[in-house]
Give the backbone structure.
Amino acid sequence: MRDSATLTGEPLALDLVNTRPAGPGGRTDLLGTPGQLADWLALEADRLPRALCDLAPAPGDLAAVHTVRAYTEAVVRALLDGVAPPAAALRGLTEAQRAAPAVRELGWDGSRVTASDCRTGPLGVRLAAVLAEAAADLLTDPAVSRLRKCEADDCVMVFLPSHPRRRWCSPTRCGNRARVARYYQRHKSAEPPGA
């Protein structure tokens, strides 16, 4: 995938995996800096605890997120290849959740008791726990059997198709490029020799 803009809209765990698209010089890390991580958190804010989105990530927060992304990707790629996921990746996702378990914090809003999940620890550890939990939810969902890799030659994105005929991570990116390439090939082969 040549465009390095972040794709969102897949399950949170796949959106995380898709933050390492292929580029002209190899894979690009769209979460390579604290600012990029903050931007991605803002894009995903409706699916993350508000407390995680309101804080500014620091350089030290990146490692935990990158580790969970690597574990999630290892499991996803294994499932796509039809092989058993690496045990170390499964253990790693479990340990990331265990590092900052969710506790239901009770409060009073003036008329009723409220409960919200609360995690303690550094931002990166809490964020990694939430992302590992999202990965666990995805990987244990029966829908994961529909998991697909984008069919564009230079794309590494993965997705869960809502339609069985979906072939690309994005119809406006890889889909358009594939259609343009097919059009070009059809018309190039229709030209008379020497034209």
In short: The chain has a mean pLDDT of 89.
